């Protein structure tokens, strides 16, 4: 969800391709675009190699599409709050999922 939110903040038109069977056989596109981890999130942008892992993708989006608001505040203290909640949710989802 993080990359989708970041693309939305930056008003970037994009196409979402859902991996329907995450816990079964992986699609050829997913295996090609993320051969190391073989999981989502993946961003395919133009002729670049695919980007994997949601935090890496969000940072790439923030730097590539510099117009519009930043995905995180510039003030370090203000940046800490959304990072805390992201880490909290990651932990809760991983523990309960």
Automatic annotation (TrEMBL):
Q: Which InterPro entries match?
A: Glutathione_S-Trfase_N, Omega/Tau-like, Thioredoxin-like_sf
Q: Where is the GST N-terminal domain?
A: 1-69
Q: Where located?
A: Cytoplasm, Cytosol
Tell me its EC number(s), please: 2.5.1.18
**Catalysed conversion reaction:** RX + glutathione = an S-substituted glutathione + a halide anion + H(+)
Q: Keywords assigned by UniProt?
A: Cytoplasm, Detoxification, Transferase
Listed Pfam families: GST_N (PF02798)
Family to which this protein belongs:
Belongs to the GST superfamily. Tau family.
Q: What does this protein do?
A: Is involved in the conjugation of reduced glutathione to a wide number of exogenous and endogenous hydrophobic electrophiles.
UniProt name for this protein: Glutathione S-transferase
Q: What is the lineage of its organism?
A: Eukaryota, Viridiplantae, Streptophyta, Embryophyta, Tracheophyta
